[in-house]
Amino acid sequence: MQDVSSIDTSTTLFGRNYPVPFGLAPSAMQKLAGGEGPRESVPLIKRAEAAGYEALVLTVDTPVLRNRINERKTPLVLPPGLHLSNLSPPPHSSQTERKPTANRLLMDARTGKKLTPSSSRRVAMKIILKGIMTPEDALLAVEHGADAIVVSNHGGRQLDEVCSTLEALPAIHSALATNVSERGKRNSIPVIFDGGVRHGADVLEALAMGADFVLLGRPVLWGLGYKGQEGVESVIHILERELTKTMALTGVAEVEGIGKEYIGVKDTSMGGFGVSKL
C-alpha cells in the first residue's frame, strides 16, 4: 500500500545530481565492439585534468594479468589499425597481442612511478580506486585519502577464486558506514558497485546492500556492438525502465529510501553464502 505513483530514480554523487543511480564502467578496447571508441589520451592525467575531467579512476587489482588459459590457446590480436592508446604500439606493426601487452604492464608495475591518493597528491581531480574487495582495503583507501572506491573484481577475469562483488559489498559497507541521519547508515566515502549488473533489479539489489552508485560494463559494450551510440542509449533506457518498475513493485519511491529491508538474505547458518534476493 505504499504510494509509488511517482518514482524518483535520481541520486547525488560528488555533489552532482544524476537522473539514475548508475553509469558506464571503464572498459578497454571499445572499438572491437563498435563505434569510434574512446579518444586517445596520452599523457592521460594531465590532459584529462586540463580538459575539465573531475575524477580519475585507478584500477588497483591488476598489477599483473592472470594466467588466461583460453587466451594462451587463442591469443587476442587486435585488427590492423587498432592499438592500445595508453601503450606504445610495437614498431612497424599495426597489431598488439595480449602477451607483449601483459609484459609491458608487468614492467610498468615493477618500475613505474606510483600515484598514491594522499594529501600531497599533485592532481586536483578526485581519486577513485577500482578493484576493492575487502573491508580492510576499503579502510586503507579512506586512510590514504581516496575520494571513492569501486567494489569490483575486474569482471571475474583476474582471480578465479575471488568471491562475487555482491558477496563482498555488505562487509565493505559495514566497515565504511556512519550514522549520519535518521535515514540510516551512509558510507564515509562513496561506494560504487561493479560486476554482473544486467537488469534494473540488479541495480536495486546493489543499492540495498550498501552501494551509493552502480556501474554497467558488458551491457554497454553489447549496446555499442548492436547500434553504436544509439545502442548504448537503448541499454540505459532499458535499465532505467526496469529500475523504475522494480522500485514500484518493491514499494520504494526514491533511491534514498532503498535499504536492506527491501531484500532477503539466504540463511548462512549452515555455512552457505548470503545470496541476496529481492
What does this structure look like?
It holds the Pfam family FMN_dh. GO terms for molecular function: FMN binding; oxidoreductase activity. Residues 80-100 are annotated as: Disordered. InterPro entries: Aldolase_TIM, Alpha-hydoxy_acid_DH_FMN, FMN-dep_DH, FMN_HAD, FMN_hydac_DH_AS. By secondary structure, the chain is of the alpha/beta class. The chain contains seven helices and twelve strands. The strands form four sheets. A six-stranded parallel sheet has the order 3-10-9-6-5-4. Strand 9, helix 6 and strand 10 form a beta-alpha-beta unit. The protein is globular, with a radius of gyration of 20 Å. Mean pLDDT is 82; it is low at 93-102 and 112-120.
From N to C, what is the helix and strand string?
A: EEEHEHHEHEHEEEHEHEE
How much of the residues is beta strand, in percent? 15-25%
Q: How would a textbook summarize the main sheet?
A: 6 strands, parallel
Q: Which architecture would the CATH scheme give at its second level? A: Alpha-Beta Barrel
Mean pLDDT reading = 82
Q: Residue share in helices?
A: 25-40%
Overall body shape: globular
CATH level 4 superfamily = Aldolase class I
Overview in brief:
By secondary structure, the protein is an alpha/beta fold.
Features:
278 residues, alpha/beta, TIM Barrel, six-stranded parallel sheet, two-stranded antiparallel sheet, FMN-dep_DH, Related to L-lactate dehydrogenase (Cytochrome), oxidoreductase, oxidoreductase activity, FMN_HAD
Task: Give the helices and strands, then pairings.
Blueprint: E1 11-13, E2 16-18, E3 22-24, H1 44-50, E4 55-59, H2 69-73, H3 98-111, E5 126-132, H4 135-143, E6 148-151, H5 165-176, E7 177-181, E8 184-187, E9 191-194, H6 200-208, E10 213-216, H7 218-250, E11 264-265, E12 276-277
Parallel strand pairs: 3-10, 4-5, 5-6, 6-9, 9-10
Antiparallel strand pairs: 1-2, 7-8, 11-12
Helix pairs in contact: 4-5, 6-7
